[in-house]
Amino acid sequence: MQLISCPWCGPREEAEYHYGGQAHVAYPHEVGALSDADWAHYLFFRDNPRGPFAERWVHAAGCRRWFNAVRDTGTHEILAVYRIGEPQPELGRQASR
Amino acid sequence: MTRLPTGGLIDRTTVLSFTFDGRPYAGHPGDTLASALLANGVHRVATSVNRGRPRGIMAAGVEEASALVQLEAPFPEPMLSATTIELYEGLVARGLPGRGTLADRPDPGRYDAMHVHCDVLVVGAGPAGLMAALTAARAGSRVALVDDQPMVGGSLLGTRGELSDWSASVLAELTSTPEVLVLSRTTAFGYYDDGFVLALQKRTDHLGAAAPDNAARQRIWRIRAKQVILATGAHERPVVFADNDRPGVMLAQAGRTYLNRYGVLAGNRIVVFTTNDSAYVAAVELAEAGAEVTVVDPRTDLAPFWAAECARVGIAVRPGHLVTGTTGEERVTGVHLAAYPSGGASATVHCDLLLVSGGWNPTVHLFSQAGGKLEYDAELGAFLPVAGLPGAGVLGAGVLGVRVSGAAAGAVSLADCLAGGAAEAVAALSDLGVAARPVASPPVGTDRVETAGLVLWAAPVEISLDGSDLSDTRFVDLQRDATVSDVLRATGAGLRSVEHVKRYTTIGTAHDQGKTSGLIASGITADALGVDIADLGTTTFRPPYTSVSFAALAGRDRGAIFDPVRVTAIHPWHIEHGAQFEDVGQWKRPLCYPRRTASGGLEDLPAVVARETRAARTGVAMMDGSTLGKINVQGVDAGEFLDRIYTNIISTLKPGFVRYAVMCGMDGMILDDGTVMRVADTEFVLTTTTGNAAKVLDWLEELAQTEWPDLRVHLTSVTEQWATIPVVGPLSRQVIAAVAPALDVSNEAFGFMTWRSAKIVGIEARICRISFSGELAYEVNVPSWYGIAVWQALFDAGQPYGITPYGTETMHVLRAEKGYPIIGQDTDGTVTPQDLGMSWVVSKKKLDFVGKRSFSRTENQRPDRKHLVGLLPVDRSVLLDEGAQVLADDDVSQLPVAMLGHVTSSYRSVALGGTFGLALVRSGRDRIGERLFAWQDGEVVPVTVTGPVLYDQEGARRDG
Known about the structure:
The complex is a heterodimer.
Chain A: E1 3-6, E2 10-13, E3 18-22, H1 36-44, E4 52-58, E5 66-72, E6 78-83
Antiparallel strand pairs in A: 1-2, 3-4, 4-5, 5-6
Chain B: E1 16-20, E2 23-27, H1 33-39, E3 46-47, E4 54-55, E5 68-73, E6 77-81, E7 91-95, E8 111-123, H2 127-138, E9 143-146, H3 164-175, E10 180-183, E11 186-191, E12 196-202, E13 218-230, E14 234-236, E15 249-251, H4 252-260, E16 269-274, H5 280-288, E17 292-297, H6 304-313, E18 316-319, E19 321-328, E20 332-339, E21 345-350, E22 353-357, E23 360-362, H7 365-369, E24 374-377, E25 382-385, E26 402-404, H8 414-431, E27 475-477, E28 482-483, H9 484-492, H10 498-505, H11 518-529, H12 533-536, H13 550-554, H14 571-576, E29 580-584, E30 587-592, H15 605-618, E31 621-622, E32 629-634, H16 638-645, E33 658-664, E34 670-680, E35 683-688, H17 693-707, E36 714-717, E37 722-728, H18 732-739, E38 755-760, E39 763-768, E40 777-783, H19 787-797, E41 804-805, H20 808-817, H21 852-855, E42 866-873, E43 885-887, E44 899-909, E45 914-922, E46 931-936, E47 939-946
Parallel strand pairs in B: 1-7, 8-9, 8-13, 9-10, 13-26, 15-22, 16-17, 16-22, 17-18, 31-41
Antiparallel strand pairs in B: 1-2, 3-4, 5-6, 5-7, 11-12, 12-13, 14-23, 19-20, 20-21, 24-25, 27-28, 29-30, 31-37, 32-35, 32-36, 33-34, 34-35, 37-40, 38-39, 39-40, 42-45, 42-47, 43-44, 43-46, 44-45, 46-47
Helix pairs in contact in B: 2-3, 2-8, 4-5, 5-6, 9-10, 9-11, 15-20
């Protein structure tokens, strides 16, 4: 049971959270001008890196706020959490082992 | 008698009677079932799973791989180790052949869970653990100390009372220190990230039938620790040789423990086969207790101290020899010796107990689960925790704050264990910013280990390298009946990984999870492959460390509170009036209200539904719709928000009006539908389908927070705050007029898709003119507190009109007759509003909304998408199966046949004079009037395709 720090509530057990997929996937401008392929890319294609990955999480059984987290997908280590609208923090440590 | 007249930590003043394999025996408090059996001379306690060989007791703790028993009283419990069952009065058990029997009745035991937060968790109350806990406690930290035994001391319990006074004084100090929690009979069985450790406490098992009914039998402790110190000790490992599974073959430390802790001399003629110095103390103590002891040691450079001790007590020592096999059936009667390393057979020695020591395996399970790395130590022949862990000190690296001390860290001498425990506590406290000094170790004797051990996995014998020796009796894993030949067969088959060898041979997969066999299997595999065991490694240590029952894991979350049962405010009325219920998610909803028939029985479901639907279509009927999800949306941007959520326009809705609306995902597939009521300029109430309420709220919150944080909108679930009562049928207006005399109920004043406030029996109600049946209908919403009062008032007012309560089955028939889809029944996440024939609900004016772009995908424009249509069986008495495939052709002789879709809803209808269904059918709207076929029960059922609306197609009935 990992501890995840909610930017609003502090460290809570992971069971209180729901995962929300990749962060910073912006809704496209002028969706009507997109090709079907580009729209499908927005809808369904997500990165899957090994190492630090910016993700959306929601403190579903707590304050119900969405926030962003940078998680190392190789170690599950949460490297940073930050509120919606805040920029992704620069991280000194970039690669997983 | 094998119980000595004195000695041991047992209470000889109390006699406990118990039954094993049908025979009565006696023991004492402080005994385990295993020690009590040995005290009664019972060595054979079980039978091996595959080969049916007699098996005995090989250990004195959780590492026991052989003596599996089934408890029969007071409550049946299978697959327990005789070495871990504390004896109690009236215990009934039998030995198992590797498989037990589950109880055939509910477990009356209670189980619960406790949460603990601490600065330092110490696992193991042996010398190292006690020193660690004491150091941390004296520093004022919040400490939890867990240990699986009923008393502290760990390995000291197997000695002649070594440091017993000190252990008692430490325990007394710990238990009297505030903020220190000492849990005995508690096994930490898993490490689960960030200092989270689960432990199982057996609270009343040792009391048997005397256990109080009101006490939880077992408890799961959920411990969150800032620092964890593992002082889990080590397990002795055997050496493998032929017929090493006979009753009376035991680990050396176990023989010593039975002697010193339980006062049991497990044999009179004892051979101690050891590859290291640690077993000599057992040999000497057993000899001093009166046994005739022979030591067999493959080493020739024996430690002078132990050579002298053996000479002193009259132990014959056979250096340069090893045990290659045994004789005996029900119990070992002798051992075969061979010279080492030359291999020549030399002698047979008679014995009734064979003690074996091949060295010690540090108990690194929790450390390994925490992500700690292990490294092979060639001198000890064991994998040790790596000191200076990679990533230690880095947040979240998995092993932050996990330390290992004592024998678990590879310490051999008692002095090192004591000092190590204190030192690790100081280091842990230092990481917490607490300056602490190690407590002083109690004085102990000199370190006697003087000669390096020999690492030996299996006694070398002639073996066929193709591993085809099925008669092999060199057991690596006793519980799995897996032998050296099985390992060689695995490597012969090309397996190169210990993980694969484990799965091929099943070694290490039994209840003991290979505590004594795993490393030996790695060693034999490494030798067979000609690789270094340091490179080959071990199999993964996975939780749980010891068996944990599902009952304990479930705790209180059983039966009715496993999943909450939700009932509406009106539920008691439904029960009083004989409703039959169905589960809709967590909700209990009335399915129907059967009446007594003339013959005294109850109406069957078709009869009830016929009566209830007839009332709704021709008179008046009412139902409890309170389970509908309801979401209150407030804020100056609420209208804009809902415009983006729903496919149709909501912001133009005026207060006092209601609109049907559909929401889709970004992919354009329908998520949910419902009504939107505008309460005020800045307030709406949405309804959702019963099962989707939480999901829809989640979705709206996600969009509000992540996509449109600029919109000022707030969302609140009000599902439980409102009771909802649809009053349905051509006579519903009279009922509403009767209960709300101040309300103008005329169609002109109170039209379709509007809502009004009115008082019903003094309760402020919101009444909506909406209909899920096509009939004139009023949906009455009142605060839940008044739900049952208002329901009763409506029911009373409806009596002159024969008002009939109806359930979900009638609701379904009514809505399906009108072609109203149920999201999640008539749709499945691949269905668009257009597929349902509801293009009218999709705005063409709005620039964008969730899902809009997806509607124009080429794929969405295909003419052969599946459409919602009605199906009328040609034989109107045949009820279609929901889920039945729809075929174009009745010729099914050549399979496969093309499938056009499937039946989504199917009912019998009084109004339609027969059965009917709804279906998703490829190009369905282009097939209206066509003959298709439903495939069910191995037959084709001819059906006619219709539009989805089968009743009142012109909508003439909604205004009454």
